[in-house]
Amino acid sequence: MDKLPGWADVVLVPLISLLCAAILSALVILAIGQDPVEALNVMVTGALGSPYGWGYTLYYATSFIFTGLAVTIAFHASLFNIGGEGQAQLGGLGVALVCLALPWPHWTVALLAASLGAALFGAAWAAIPAYLQARRGSHIVITTIMFNYIASALIVFMLVDVLRPVGQMDPATARFPPGTNLPTLDQIPGFSLIFTRTVPANVTFLVALAACVLVWALLWRTRLGYEIRAFGRSEPAARYAGINPFRIIMITMLLSGALAGLMSINNVMGESERLVQNSTEGAGFIGIAVALMGRNHPFGVLLAALLFGFLYQGGAELGLWTSIPIELRIVVQGLVILFTGALDQMVRMFLGWLFRFRSPKAA
Amino acid sequence: MDFATLIQILDSTLRLATPLLLACLAGLFSERAGIFDIGLEGKMLMAAMASGAVAALTGSVWLGLGAGIVASMLLAALHGVASITFRGNQLISGVALNFLASGITVLVAQRLFGQGGRTPPLDGAARFQHLTLPFADAVRDVPILGPIYADLLSGHTILTYIALLAVPATAWVLYRTRFGLRLRAVGENPAAVDTAGISVVGLRYAAVAITGILCGLAGAYMATALQAGFGREMTAGRGYIALAALIFAKWRPWGALWATLLFGFFQALALRPDVVEGVAGVKVPVSLLDALPYILTVLVLAGFVGKAIPPRAGGEPYVKER
User: Fold this and answer.
1) pTM of the full predicted structure?
2) What's the whole-number mean pLDDT along residues B176-204?
3) Distance, CA of A288 to CA of A45 (rounded, Å)
4) Interfacial B residues in 92-121 facing A (CB < 8 Å)
5) Confidence check: pLDDT of A316 > 70
6) ipTM strictly over 0.85?
7) Where are the alpha helices (DSSP H) in chain A?
8) B198: Cβ–Cβ under 8 A, 6 or more apart, which residues?
9) Domains of chain A with CATH codes
10) Which residues of chain A lie closer than 8 angstroms to B287, CB-CB?
11) Pick from A160, A325, A338: which is nearest to B107 by CB?
């Protein structure tokens, strides 16, 4: 098979994969007796048609940037971290413990401390599967999945038996003190010109953008990043070059878990302002689709996260205004993962065929 | 814990181990042929929905079972196309199919029945009935062996017995037939199989198809025997636990039986807080019991597996030399 031009591999392959996923999703909508054109209309209007819609789209995108980066960094070391969901839930626990511990004077201090808590708890939850993979050879995919189930049970236990205030019925923590409330985009000078109504997107979005840059710098501009990528390409070669596999697996997974945990400052601290059950709402899993769609590059992750933010907000609007169940989002998510992660070779073969078809004329 | 309680727990062990065993054997065929399959979970879920829906619509559990197998095989075929024909990443393909199944099952069930993504409760001929083995009532009063036969082994649905029989059948196919030899070879060294003039692609598709059938049985069991109908996410990670059991079993059929019985036992314990508290001597939170099967799965994988060597060519797409 001919090699595709670089730009086609970077731009065309994801776009065509996305198109395939979109076409199949439209067929699914048709199959359950709904109108895909109307569905798309509702999604675009609801997610992108107003600053208010954008506020939600950016809010979801913020979470997906973190979880997407988490999966990305693990992918570069050839580790498949499916445990972002559990790590993000634990991150939420970290945020809650920090926010409830002290009467925080200002949100900047609280944000710093809560980020630390979120990253620490997320990393801790990734540490055990990482250790088991590095030392005992347990398959990281299976252990991280098991840890997702264990995490949700642990959160239920913490909310029901430990953190729930006396006299409260629903399993959730108390509201965080006002000093921890993060400014939403409508309260930030500059953004407030666009966002005139209260939106859930908050200052965490800027933290997420910073995280993109930091992850990029780490992976492509530091020695550690080089070691991670070398290890991911070929473990024997990395070992031969003196790279310690145990160290790389542990560091990569800790970073991955920390990034997944960090998403909780967006949803737990920035939006709900208390920890509730299933606070992540599947964002940890979306990270897989975002990383694949973004071709494991932080900039790609940013774009893919925006796309999934649109999909999530749009999907929620579908659930509100049409009789298409909200689970359509999971179907689209599965299709995107399938086409970008597993059938990418099919897309490449198809493109290669197209390019071969064209080149004799050019020559 | 007295003898009667033990029999009860072992009885539900067998009941809960059935879908694990079927899924584990399903994974065994696929992985022995060199195709990793994280998607057991999705196939089971799809089969559970299809069988629950068709059984509810037609009133026949056998039609439901057929629909479950067909649904599961469709997903298996998709996995085959992605990982065999287009040489994609098998782990990612499996994960994608799990999400696909998780969403589609709710969409279809909601469209058909409008009950929030569930299928209506099944009864009568729409469900697998409990079979009483011959002489079960006659020997019940024999000490020790009587209850073991009458209460533990008897009184399950036909799918449980099929699952148990599938163990020797799998062992026979794998170790005593030409197909089994080739299947194992294609998972270890596909180039050798290719050199012998046997189709690697054909064998792998055959293995993936068998995986589809067995996952179909597992899913149908979930919706029409273990429970009375399909509920969203009803497989609750069983596909992954089956994979853990497969590693614990070191990819061997009889090992699969013992491993899944062990994991079934963990799940049975989680259903009996009174027994766990009696043995442990302290009050155990419900959420810990919910997490117990998953925690024990991790512990088993971490500590007791020993050296588990997967099929050598597992996860690698085969590229024919040109």
Assistant:
1) 0.90
2) 92
3) 26
4) 92-93, 95-104, 106-108, 110-111, 117
5) yes
6) yes
7) 6-7, 13-31, 36-48, 51-76, 84-101, 107-131, 140-157, 204-221, 223-233, 235-240, 245-264, 283-293, 298-321, 328-337, 344-362
8) B182
9) 35-322 (1.10.3470)
10) 153-154, 156-157, 160-161
11) A325
